[in-house]
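[PROTEIN RECORD]
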Amino acid sequence: MVGMSCRFPGADGLDAFWQLLISGSEAIGPAGSRRSGRRDGGYLDGVELFDAEFFQMPAPEAAATDPQQRLLLELAWHALEDARTAPDTLSREPVGVFVGNCADDYSLMGRAAGIATAYTMTGTGRAFLANRLSHFLGFTGPSLTVDTGQSSSLSALHQALRSLEAGECSAALVAGVQLNLAAEGDDAVQAVGALSPRGRCHTFDSRADGIVRGEGAGVLLLKPLERALADGDRIYCTVLGSAMNSDGGRTGLTAPSSEAQQSVLTAACRRAGVAPEDVSYVELHGTGTALGDPVEASALGAVHGAGRPSDFPLRVGSVKTNIGHLEGAAGIAGFIKTALGLHHGELPASLNYREPNPAIDLDANRLEVCAVRGAWPRRPEPSIAGVSSFGLGGTNCHVVLGEHPARTVPASPATGAATPVPVLVSGRSGPAMRRHAAAFADALDPARRDPAADPVSLADIGLSSVTTRALLHHRGAVVASDLDELVARLRVLADGPHPDAPGAVEGTRGEGLTAYLFPGQGAQQPGMGRRLHQEFEVFARTFDEASAAMEPALGASLADILWGSDDLPDRRYHAQPALFALEAALYRLLESWGMAPDLLLGHSQGEITAAHVAGVLSLEDAALFVARRSRLISTLPPGGAMIAVQAAEKEARDLLGPEPGPVSVAAVNSPQSLVLSGEEKATLAAAAHFEQLGRRTRRLRIAVAGHSPLMEPIQDELLALAEGLTWHPPTGPPIISAVTGRPVIPGEIDRPGHWPHHLRATVRFGPALRTAYDLGARFFVEIGPGRGLVNMAAETVDLGESLFSAPMATRDEVAGVAGTAAAAHVFGAPIDPVAVHGPHARRTDLPPYPFRREPFWLDTVPSTAPLPAEPTAPWSGDPYELVVSSTLSTLGLSPATELDLHENFNALGLDSRMAVTLRTVLTRATGRSMPTTLLFDHPTPGALIEALGSDAPL
């Protein structure tokens, strides 16, 4: 058993339930407002509350759906998270769903009120307790609801074990749920004389006089032990075997049978392969009735007492003394209590026990009630426990549990320096993502953590945030070097959009390609790459190999040149080789993290790096080419100038004239940004022209005017250099040429003759960016120091749907590359989280998803209310306003609800009936003819808004 979740009286979650148990508390009391006037019992608060937005249910469907279904949806999600498994990763897997339940009060209440809607059958049919879970989570294994009365949930577990053994499913989600919504249920239990007049359960006590009703739900995730061990799962306990039988008419219909109970106990132990006398604890059915307790005690004594040493009595207890009798969910409650006890090595007290029932001889039966909290009885062998659940109609079930296998899980090693780590949160909507960030911060805040708790590894948190949580549409990520910084940055993320917040990125999951941008000379920085070289072996290896290939030409190692002093490497023959080595090393680092680009763009010399990573040149040949090319450029006489100018290309060409002259347009970086290059006096004069027009200009810190007529003297030597290398057709990601602004074609960059022209030609980086965008690029990463190229990209192609990252544009380069990994997670680009967080990082517990619950009940949406046939207000002509308001109205949601424009209508909860209604509303509002396939052709609100804003036929 690798994951579980629960919501029981007084305990919303596993931690709260365990605290209730070990503190010896009970949760019996009066009902809440919707059920005021009912007798005391174990009640849940807020059973009407549900996060319909998260589970993509329109309001009318949520109101019509049994709260038991809704509760199971939330708990199933949390059980998978507790198993450290992202819930969305099991979709289309043969996972079985087995739900025990014996109550349908909501259905009875709806029928009594005469309410019937299109959602009544699926909302209240008991089969849908299981079917809804399978449908929402995408599970393809068996899906069934089991009703054996009060033993339903343990019977469901038994069925799940049989299904796993038969190979029908690879894992099983097992649940039990019981909500006592109608007072008539109390009356029915009272009529058979089962309710305690005292309103408390006194299991095995002399005061035993009946049950007190309780409600709640629990969910378990079971996997074959071999697979759980292979997957490195945290194992709460093992399930060794189970058995199920019926009283078979030995007694009255509702009277328990000691013979049948002995039989089921014996069969369960036999199937588990354990001797009954080795079982150390049994969680009783333990109803606290005058008839049931003595029968159960005698059966336990007959099976487990025989041959048991006198100093090793069978400990027994009942969770019903804490939370009441959960009837259909009673077995799962007892199972979770026992599993937690095995996991923590403790036995909680069974409450309300003062003196034994005179009809029970504890000594003779070798039994001992756990009247006080204590350590789990230890023997040389692994601990074994049992859980019993008996149905009122005679269906008996017993399950045998084993202690989890002893495993040593290595802790993540401490590192000398704090290493920045990306941590991801997500949600169905922007506000939901922020709630998730806030809950995350609260759970991790050192001020709130138990001082005795194990230290938290940041790498474990980062890995788990990506691998154990569903990556939903709205995403945020922060980069932190320690826990305090992580909590602080999560709180900033939770507070609202802060575009300039350090170490944070947020957005919606992108749809598009990833483009890597390689800068040319001018981007170099003092000390660049030093931290990356120290921190990452992949980066260091590639950098060192490039340096070794260049050293004969440079006369020194790049490490000495770059990091031997604080001087900026701006000498003409050092800057370009240094940039190449850094870019190649950074590319290989990100590649090792699974971050492979879809497109490559290089600015000037950066195109050589792009050619190398695309397979055109080996690392050795590319490094040699860059070093010798740099040396050739350095032989040119000084006297040129390069000046960045705020101007359009046409303006510059009109100024310079059609004939070749001493000044060229060296680079077109964006629609209003270019570089002039050439003979110094003429270039300054051209720049002055634009200054007089009020345009910004900036002289570049560069000694030789590249991409200008001043490059002509070395064209032949550069060609000879290129001809001495081995060129290959590109095999890596496609390159968008900055010479043509178009995708590279065969025979273009893989021939020597291209490269002399490349040094002389205009760098058409802006058009290349536009081409990349038109091909689908939406995530742009600068592979080099600085952020000049992503700034150009933002100026050229940012229409509000693109994401930009510059990993080396920060003082802390390690934090920078972690930030790029965070940005990739937000965008949805492929990434290997294990490679990012290191081989020693392991999955750990994180706070569960914080559902935002709102009230939905039979009376919250009128059962006979028609779906809107008219728009909620006259159309203003704005398609955005019309689509958003009409969609929210059709879904039955508040006008203030944030609608995700990029989410599929189906995922938003719009069913086929609602789709017809929405189309009708839009047709009447706009007066336009709309096809029946409107929402199929335009499947998201955003796509529909765009279509309605166009004059083209729909």
